[in-house]
Design a protein that fits this description.
3 strands, three-stranded antiparallel beta sheet
Length: 104
């Protein structure tokens, strides 16, 4: 049976506190290669984090169960809007094309 892909509705339970809690559990230097950011970082309490990895960890905290696998079910198309909605700063990686629509 294939893993269920997450939707924006699945992310509704995530709060700013979940994101901050997830950030405290992540060492940015130990993020798996598959979850390294390609286009942007998210700034949480002055540190840079990969958006999808951060939101996936926050989802696990909010919903009390693990997601089926890294990045296969939560990409920037879901992570970026949720992080913006919660008011976190999104920073493009220097020298990388910024393909995600920036919020005005």
């Amino acid at each position: 049976m294939a893993a269920k892909k997450l939707t924006m509705k699945d992310l509704e339970k995530i709060t700013k506190d979940h994101i901050r809690q997830a950030a405290r559990q992540i060492n940015p230097d130990d993020v798996p290669t598959i979850e390294q950011p390609k286009e942007y970082y998210v700034i949480v309490d002055g540190k840079k984090y990969p958006g999808p990895h951060l939101v996936r960890k926050a989802f696990e905290l909010a919903c009390c169960y693990e997601t089926p696998g890294p990045k296969k079910n939560l990409g920037p198309h879901l992570a970026l809007p949720k992080l913006r909605e919660l008011g976190f700063q999104i920073v493009p990686i220097e020298g990388k094309p910024w393909r995600m629509k920036q919020q005005e």
